[in-house]
Amino acid sequence: MQFLFLSLFTLGIVGVDQLVKYLIVSNIPLFGQAPLVPGIMKLTYVQNTGAAFSMLQGMQWLFVVIFILLTALLVFEYFKKPMPFAKFERFCIAAVYGGGLGNMIDRVVLGYVVDMFQTEFIKFPVFNVADIFITCGCILLMVHIAFFNKEFWKEEKK
């Protein structure tokens, strides 16, 4: 039953991500801008063929390979050799995976990732909904494992 909820959560993330990207592409021209929260954030339509700060520009094959390896690792871990992750941690992993899947869909279908959120108060890369879920999922997962999941750190007794 947990797998069903995790799958639906992941698909929901992908759905919201793809919907926002569709709305941006439909309503803002490439490199066009629209205010979102004046002085804090604006919408800027950008096509990104790399990662944050345009690192690994044009290396789509590498992102596909990493995503396939991550998928295989997650399937193996969940079904063959489960680790002592709490339910909350599994939802964090699903958030990261959902964000990755949203960006992977763009990479495979379009050849680039649609980014749209640009901060005005700090120089930061333009990002999208998928990036938010990836980043928040990673941070929450690390914090929860480090401070709240005592089971994760127990050594197996032989």
Number of distinct helices: 4
Compute the gyration radius: what is it? 17 Å
How are helices and strands ordered from N to C?
HEEHHEH
* SS strand fraction: 5-15%
The total beta strand count reads 3
What is the overall silhouette? Answer: globular
Distance between the termini: 32 Å
Structural class: alpha+beta
Q: How many domains comprise the coordinates? A: 1
Low-confidence stretches are none
Q: Strand sequence of the main sheet, in spatial order?
A: 1-2-3
Helix proportion range: 55-70%
- What does the largest sheet look like? 3 strands, antiparallel
Mean pLDDT: 91
Task: Briefly say what this structure is.
Helices cover 56% and strands 13% of the residues.
Kindly describe this structure:
24% of the residues are buried. The radius of gyration is 17 Å and the shape is globular. It has helices spanning 2-27, 60-79, 87-109, 129-147, and strands at 33-37, 41-48, 113-119. α1 (2-27) runs parallel beside α3 and α3 (87-109) runs antiparallel to α4. The chain is α+β, with helices and mostly antiparallel strands. It has one domain (2-25, 37-153).
